[in-house]
Here is the input.
Amino acid sequence: MAAWCTFHGVRLGVDPGVVAGGTTCERVASILTQYLEAYDSSWDAVPALSQWTVRVVGERPTQGAAPGNFYAGQTFWESRIIDLYQGSLSVLPHEVHHVALGPPSSDHQGWCPFGDWEAREGILDEHGYLGCPALQR
Ligand SMILES: [Zn+2]
Here is the structure.
C-alpha cells in the first residue's frame, strides 16, 4: 500500500496505482464514509468492521472472478480484508453486508431486498448479478 488512513474507524490502504491516479487516501476515505453512512442508515451497523482492513487497488483484481463476471470487490474472511477496485468504490456496502452476515452469505441467498435498496439509493444496480428481478418502479 502506498498510503494508509481511516474512515469511521476502519483501516484503509490505497495502493500505488490509486495514488498515481491523482487521488489521496483521505479523498477515498471521504467517499467510502458516504457509502458506509448510507449503509448504516438503513441496515444494522457492523461494529466488527473496525477489525477489518479495506484496501483500494488501482488495477482490477482478476483472481477469483468468474468468467464473464464484472469483478469489483472481494471479502477475505481469514485475513479480514476487503479489496475494492478504485473504479468500484460503490460496492463497499455490498462487501460490508457480507461482513454483517458472515461467510455463509457468499451465495447471496436472500439478498434481493438488499439489491432493491442499493438500486433505490442509486448506489449500484446488481439485480442481474444477484439473480433478482429488476426493481419495480
Ligand atoms: Zn457478494
